[in-house]
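#onboarding

Welcome to the new folks! Below is a worked example of what a typical request in this channel looks like: someone posts a single protein sequence, and someone else replies with the predicted structure as tokens. Don't worry about understanding the tokens yet, we'll cover that in week two.

Example request:
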Amino acid sequence: MKLLFDSNRSLPSRILSCLLLCIVICFAVWYSEFNGQAQLEPLFPGMPLTKIVYSLLILIGVVVAYGFGVVYARGAVIKSRGIPGEVKMLKNALKFFLVLFGFIFFVWAWYSVGAIGTLFFTFGGMFLGWSLQAPISGVAAWMLISIMRPFRVGDRIQLPSFGLVGDVVDVSALYTTLNQVGGSVGSEEPADRTILIPNAMLFGALVINYTPKHQDELIRQSHSHNEKKAGDISSYMLDEFVLRLTFDSDWDEAERILLETAREVTAEIIRETGEQPYIRADMADWYGVFMRLRFLTNATMRPKIIHEISKRVFKAIQSNTKVDFAIPYIYSDKKGQDMAPPMSIRNMVSTSRSPSDATPRSTFDNMSSLSQDQE
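Example response:
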């Protein structure tokens, strides 16, 4: 099927393919309209020439229809600003339909329609209802996905009921192929592990598309009160960075560090969407204040963005005397040795004193001395 419409073939090969196609079509016209059948029957006695010619016409019709259908589908996808993965999905659906109809016409040309109908209605209903329930459901789901395209090849989707996140690699008649994201690693990065999901399972499964085709329209509808700058925001989502700070940290200084860091790291996203990062805080326990930095991030670049924000915030707080990390069961990272009962270093001082020195020795000093003595 790629002889005429494959752009990677050389020009002489494509010209030769066109000539062969024209010769076959001219032969079929000569056979049916110019009494070619009467001239060939004496040369091939006993052969079903009419059925053979009809079979060739069916084959040529399927090839030509597939080629023009692919060209039309590619043009339609480009016009709608789609991606190459959509062309692949439409090509597979078109190929399935053409092969199915070609097979039906081929059987019709060689066999009696009445006999075929009787055979099908005798065994077909029982066979399809019992043996092919799941495959037929899978094919129906595949056709629905290929035509409606709730997700496309290249999109990142999540299946919460199965605990899976992956990038769509292919959508075939029975299976949707994913490149798993996460799983063997802790962050949302592709693990290069292939997952096959039966299409029949997608009928009743919740699917979350990280990068839908019309997400920009959905966001504009849900935020109609807020004007947005022009740009493609179809791959952006809201993310959160949580930080626990001590109660004596400077609140305004902590907000300044978090917001400036988010603005620096996501500057390009802010320019395209107009959405500024913001802070939401709460005191859910007695071990510090939770500062929640919320910002728009790119769905596929999320691990890199959150890493960059974490690194910059960590360095900024380490060099700042007004803000400090809060650690559960220890009052402060910087002041924990002096102010964290009962786990401070001062409270862990041993009551025993050495004969030559009246200074208390801590547990860690005793352990260090014991190690030196063993050496």
